[in-house]
Amino acid sequence: MNGLLAAVRLALRAIVRSKLRAALTVLGILIGVAAVVVVVALGTGVRNQILGELSGLGANSIYIFPQSTQASGLKRRDSARLSEADGAAILEESISVAELSPFSSTSMQIVAGEANVATQVMGVTRSYFSILSYTVDEGEGWTEADEQLKTKVCVIGETVRENLFGAGEAVGQYIRIGKHPFRVIGVLTKKGQSPFGEDQDDRLLMPIGSFRSRVVPSAPGKVQMLIAAATSELTVDRAVAQIEGILRQRHEIAPEDEPDFVIRTQAEFRASQEQILGTLTMLLSSIAAVSLLVGGIGVMNIMLVSVTERTREIGIRMAIGASEDDILVQFLVEAITLSVIGGVMGLGVGLGLIQILAGALGWSMTLPPSAIVVAVGTSAAIGIVFGFFPARRAARLDPIQALRHE
């Protein structure tokens, strides 16, 4: 223990004697550690941001789409197979489905006074709001009677309100979709962009019966998609299995045949996003780790120069009884000390940059405690790995030759 403390004292003295050289060595490690720390925190912040937004889209939501099927070797598209009757059957027969909304949409020009904008017009039922966590900020939503009577009413997003009415009152105003006037009865609470880059406020919602009758005339009950909500996140898989069984039975599809529908869940979107983000974070961390490698090479180069300059000192220490192990430990501790100082300083700089980025981006960026330990441990490991060769070279010097060195 005394020998280790003595090695630390000698290392600190050597660092103080060559301040500029030590500072340049520390700088390489500092930049590398700071880069890795910021990249890890940035990846964590992006992940939390996107997963939070996905949760806002309904963590237990399930999407049922029609898809092409194959019959007698020929491709046929049967996109009209999904219907409101299918949705009603799922709600009645599935114990793991809490809510369900039929869904159809199209892009349309809508007009209010002299304003004319394109937006996504969607036909849904009232369940859509709770399934995807939409709330009405101004006015109100439509009633069950509005759905049954196909009333010409609608609820608009904040982006649509700004484009059509500016800062003015929207509730109670009339807008024209095609040749039909619709009364605005509510404005949705602002949600911003989705994780997929979609403006969640650039939409107009109306009862699906009104949509089929007046916006996109289509067969009664026909829908483009069904959106369901499981009773909880834990029952999503069970709900999917029940939905598949119900639709196969209703559409008379044998178990071995390809279904004419496809089911996707928010959990699948979430897993896909996590995989992409994990890969991206690993790639960026690998790039940042290159700077750590460069810093490590800098440590090795500086230590080799130090060994050359202090060859006579090494010879004197050996002459008065220092063993090879003593010399090895002395230079190894010096390399580790330089690396740890750089690592701690890099961690401090990285934490400062994280706070600046978090304020600028408005994200919650935190560095896991494990990442702090890894950052400091990695810097120490760099000192050991890149300091070992110079230390071993110093330890293997011939004492006589070392004393003769000028």
UniProtKB/TrEMBL annotation:
This protein's superkingdom? Bacteria
Q: Name one Pfam family in it.
A: MacB_PCD
**Which residue numbers delimit the ABC3 transporter permease C-terminal domain?**
286-399
Give the record's keywords alphabetically: Cell membrane, Membrane, Transmembrane, Transmembrane helix
Q: Which GO terms describe its molecular function?
A: transmembrane transporter activity
| Record domain MacB-like periplasmic core: where | 23-245
Q: Does the keyword Magnesium apply?
A: no
Q: Which InterPro entries match?
A: ABC3_permease_C, MacB_PCD, Macrolide_Exporter_MacB
Give compartment(s).
Cell membrane
A GO CC term? Answer: plasma membrane
Q: How does the UniProt record describe the way this protein sits in the membrane?
A: Multi-pass membrane protein
Q: Does the keyword Membrane apply?
A: yes
Annotated transmembrane regions: 20-42, 282-307, 328-358, 370-389
Similarity remark: Belongs to the ABC-4 integral membrane protein family.
Q: Which PANTHER family match?
A: ABC TRANSPORTER PERMEASE YTRF, MEMBRANE COMPONENT OF TRANSPORTER-RELATED
Name-wise, this protein is Multidrug ABC transporter substrate-binding protein
* Species assigned in the record: Sorangium cellulosum
